[in-house]
Structures
1.
Amino acid sequence: MADHAQDLEAELGRLLDQERFPPPPAFAAAARVTDGTLHAAPGEDVPAWWLEQTREILDWKVEPTVSLDSSKAPFYEWFADGELNVSHNCLDRHVEAGRGEKVAFHWRGEEGEERDVTYAELLADTQRMANALKARGIDKGDVVGIFLPMIPEAAAAMLACARIGAVHNVVFGGFSPGSVRERMEVSEARALITVDQARRKGKTAPIKAALDEVLAAEPLPTLETIFVVRHVGEETPMEQGRDHWLDEAMAAAPAECLAEPLPAEHPLFILYSSGSTAKPKGILHTTGGYLTQAAWTHREVFDLGDDDVWFCSADIGWVTGHSYIVYGPLANGATSVMYEGAPDYPHKGIWWELCERYGVTLFYTAPTAIRACMKWGAEHPREHDLSTLRLLGTVGEPINPKAWLWYHKVIGGERCPIVDTWWQTETGAIMVTTLPGAQDAKPGVAGTPLPGVAVRVLDNEGKEVSTGEQGLLAITDPWPAMLRNLYQDPDRYEETYWSKFGPGTYFVGDAARMDEEGYVSVIGRVDDVINVSGHRLSTAEVESAIVAHPKVAEAAVIGQSDEDSGQAIAAFVTLEGDLEGTDDLVGELREHVATRIGKLARPKRIIWSDDLPKTRSGKIMRRLLRDVAEGRALGDVTTLKDPDVMARLEEQIKTGAVPEED
Ligand code: PRX
């Protein structure tokens, strides 16, 4: 084994010099797109090109005649005179075309259970679920929360909302019950679909009971209905009138439910994501444009064919799950693998076991997961036959070349192209990547803007920077899957995305460089957003959770570079009065953050500090905190109110008085 590992190291070391990887010939020979024609296609009139794409890829009840409408910019509209239904496009049309027996999801439970859900079955479940929602008075435009593990019911719940025009608001399963309550409150959700218990690595968590607790402490009168999926089957408290077992409600509901034709701009979902303040942003996506680009990118970027088996390892609670587990793959009639569990449970080779078991051909994951797999060792994937794989993808954060090469060699057997896809919750769909049969991949470099997407790298004043120079990523023309607004907060929408560079140019929030071939390297966020294992969090959100602890006077949070998770949360904490920082208090604070936000937000490092570096006007200088945490020489500290504070922090870090998470 040791020899194997050394050989692999040596080979990866040799490959590190290879800057570009052309499409593997066998792949390119059968790929959908093999030359630049697709790139040339949009030509001058990009909106007209998108109109053609949407007519081809979706089934419209009323075909749109207009493409982009910028008259209310930045509240752009796409395909506004068209009507369609997302659930019809994802289900009915495939069943009507005789593909009802095709598997939509090969579902695998944590304990090894298997369930194949066909398109016909998913349609039947979706219709009954939609009718169950209707029976509780849910109507067009009402918000429905979804807090579910990775089970087929999660997809059916989203589609059931889409079927009747309700707007779903999915919350990632890793968030705390308090965060779920908050998201239901701010979106005025009328119903919530959740689960009795969730399973994680052999243990169960009483989800419904925990939600009951926060709702009892702070009731939410707007939340009239809670549907509970019977998943683990343990005893679960149910409140008369409000709570209903979903299986019983579905059994009592009529089997057929009309897929309501909806205007293209009808809201499809809200997804709360972190911004630079403590208050999450309710990113709003609508129907026609979103589905067009989710489906189009899923087909073209991943070279989707009829016989492919798709496996996206994301969670449905993130945008990747929305666009590339549910809407893109189902609109394209694809077969997917859905896995309930963690990547290392019941064993560290479970993903590769699933790839072998279901003959996965296209696999999409995050760089942080690849780095974890590298750490666990190549022996896990090598125990499985991965020969069906023909394309690999990554998303969520920059991928370091070494992880890229490991993925290419160990998982892809050097025959699979890798697409490094850059996008955001706001963009709805992939924006920058390579078309795998047509363009060379460059490890660590995302790629070029896709057809129909206009991306530039600008300086602070909005002027394009020179080739190879670092600047701010911007999108200079609207695109169909763009967010339409921040839920009930249009001012914040305009301010966050459209004020930096002026009318028509979308501020991304990432730093980037573009090379002479137009390839974009994404460097990272320029705002106070941190990216931990591809999960987006705001420093302010974590800070406000920490300062809510009675022993804390003040806190500043930064994203520190981290080998495993890309960035890790480090918190500089000043305690009240004469309180001393202890190991017990570190544990208490981490637990406190987990309860308020969720385990994903627990600081990896807590650094006690008597004071924080502040300018004379009281602004905390996080840049200096990052320098000291990452062991860099400190720059200019003369603007600080108390320049000595940095020296004290440096000393504290050097003497090791900083406990780290194990
Ligand atoms: O900083 C970029 C990073 O993730 C941010 C978007 O996060 P979120 O809205 O949670 O969506 C993640 C999944 C689409 C971006 O602003 N990011 C995403 N993909 C990449 C990336 N950074 C570098 N390379 C990528 N491929």
2.
Amino acid sequence: MVDFSMVFPAGFLWGTATAAHQVEGGSPPNNWTRWEEAGRVFRQQRAGLACDWWGGRYAEDFERAAELHNNAHRFSVEWSRVEPEPGRYDDAALQHYADMVSALHARGLAPLITLHHFSNPLWIEDQGGWTNPATIGHFERFVQRVVEALGGGVSTWCTINEPMVYATQGYLFGYFPPGARSFGQTIRVAENLLRAHAAAYHAIKALQPDAQVGLAKHQIALKPGFPALVHRRALNIVDNFFNRAFVHALTTGTLRFPSRTVSVPEARDTLDWIGLNYYYRFRVTFNLLAPRQLFLRQARPRDGIPGPGDTGEIWPEGLFGEIKRLFEMTGKPLYITENGVPDIDDSIRPLALIRSLRSVWQAINHNYPVRGYFFWSLVDNFEWAEGYDPRFRFGLYGCDAETQQRVKRRSADLYGEIGAANALTAEMVRRYVPGQAEALFPGVKVKSSVELPQP
Ligand code: BGC
């Protein structure tokens, strides 16, 4: 038996992902700065300087990404900077983003730009945010401005990050701004986000016909509580609502929720690619008293690793199934637009990364067209409602928002070796997670005793 390598396709994109409000620092008034001021974040924290990317530290962090042999990076544009007041666009802010795009190109990193990642200008929020259909037109004009300003250097766009996370966290669980708890509003927001995606898709294509436009969809892996027969119905409800409905609408133009079916014909076939954001697996138990929690519990880890707080278990093998079904639903190429684990000590991240990439590689070898992998995240950053809670540090590099010091974690070395080789090898596995190699790759210990004939 020869030693094992999981080689990725030529041209595969290796990158990391970030979002504006989480890394830039000093955001102008938006829904999150207001949420922070209202004390709704872990220990009343504020994003503050974050990773100081607005102050220019993006350049040194892009340098780090390049040192890790990355060839791509995903970042988002902050709407409240580009359009601080309705119809007033800030050219200096657009120039800043154009500079970031150039800084990526200068280091051989292809940009993938997200146009909405959880944050809205306050003026949008004050007119009802995404419950108000007028937001769709405002978003479309903002997107046009950004594409006009950056389009020369960007060909891959992500319209909206995680529409169902945004809708449920902000309008059902009340955990994100504006903190509503209403099924009706949740559904209205999802519907408006779908229309906004469609409007953005068509607007980008009109300006840049060759652009590749997609959306990042957060998928959760689910397993039924025991006995499965009882709980599987609840699982199907959650699965349809959270994982399937929006994706289905992007291909068919019909958004189907249990209480409401809406036709959005302009959304039909509005994907050139689909992004998968994948983190956790949950157990679903039917509990009539907990529909607002979507019947979700952290799964009892067996093959997985317990996640912090109310999150699910970390179960990297779920990637395969989510890739498979996103492809089956859309027929489009995929990017893993986010995948990562919160782990300040970096004690589980190397293993989770290896298991995740094994799962992605297996999917590729089943011929699912995965074109790239964006690890969440490059540096520790402001984790939304969790703020700077030490249990929620996602970076390949640690980052202290106060001192701005970065610390390289071992996972960064591992990710760099993978990018350089365009492969995950058994030898890397032995070095980074000693003792796990045989369990992960049966047979790797047996070295070849037969010399292969030289060509
Ligand atoms: C979001 C990121 C977030 C990450 C880790 C994703 O749902 O897109 O902004 O930081 O999860 O929790």
3.
Amino acid sequence: MEKGFRKDFLWGGATAANQCEGAYDEDGKGLSIQDVLPHGFGPYTERPTSDNLKLKGIDHYHRFREDIALFAEMGFKVYRFSIAWSRIFPTGEEETPNEAGLRFYDAVLDECEKYGIEPLATISHYETPLALAKKYNGWTSRKMIGLYLKYCKVLFERYKGRVRYWITFNEINSILRQPFMSGAIMTPKDQLSRSDLYQAMHYELAASALAVKLAHETDPENQVGCMVVGITVYPLTPNPDDILKVMEIDNDLYFFLDIQARGAYPYFAERRFAEQGIRIEITDEDREALKHTADFIAFSYYSSNCATCDPTLGEPSRSNMTPELRKNPYSQVSDWGWQIDPKGLRYTLNRLYARYQKPLFVAENGLGAHDVLVPDGNGSFTVEDDYRIAYMKAHIEQMKEAVKDGVDVLGYTAWGCIDLISCSTAEIDKRYGFIYVDLNSDGSGTLERYRKKSFDWYKKVIASNGEDL
Ligand code: BGP
């Protein structure tokens, strides 16, 4: 039987506050860890520096009305954005929230409502208040759970009935690879003990579960998702040792998902902790808290990689967060060396659904590429981004195959639906958008917005509910 996307499939796009808003010190906003990360993953600086493109971003803070109108023109059903924690609680520890910060997101929601766009809010997208990193060493401290929940409570109450879909933490499993960006942990990675790292992971997971509980208590209509980097890895060879290596890498991912979707530590945790000398505090209360599982599983998917136990085999892959991995000889690569593997999306959707049987949400997918602005023949400009259309078409086709396989997919939000500052490299040249933003890496540019060729293509995809690709 022919089966397509569900009628209420949530097509749309995704951004993060720190990568698009700019206005880093306006209306009472405190510093976030991103304000001291001018070069992406690291290293961090003492204070914000003028070479940090995120300080001005694409000025979404002042142009969100224009931007959301463009999203509406494409027919977006959903807009995934993040709320900047330090706009609401500048240092994370204030008694009362910053009203101006809350008002900004009121206005964003007004625009969404105007066009009938469902908001999907990420509560923490790599933008913890810097003060919490400095004072508590981020999520290594149990104190963070209470501070995060205080922030969640404010959001759930303020936006009750207006935001129904939430994601607690962006790519929560990235803490293992990027402890500062993901966990606000200031200790350099090579000096951070495994116990401290896993303790931070545990506190974040407990906070996420308690946020699910709180969201449901505040409004039973709330749908709360957990979110992970959808790390997809194939064995480079049929050597059983390569298979076991991939099993270990998969377990890194399942570690986070088993806790968030099944409500308890996985069966392999005990051996892993024992062999790696990891000692962490998990109280009975924590175990109770973890039972509040997420309503849906969201993940980002850009590429896949290979793994082998033989370091002499294969070529290193230039992937985002997993540098020890190898290239897949069957995959093409993006301008930034990320391997392109649409079928890996079908595989990832199937394996997550097989294990968890929870609705899935493709919260990020897209192609970061160099774009060239050219005259559009009507007195304006455009980008002939056929490469982006090809990438997305192939991925949406595979997502559709997964739906036909029987996987329950709730929605798809294309990453960086408008060009924004890259997360890993903090540049603007790595563009993902359907909308081009006139901004250069030296900070120059008019910030004008232009529709790319993919803009009309995506509009057609949405209008046909994924049938006309
Ligand atoms: C994810 C992040 C996003 C985003 C994306 C693309 O890991 O959640 O914030 O930026 O990757 O990565 P990049 O911007 O480095 O190309």
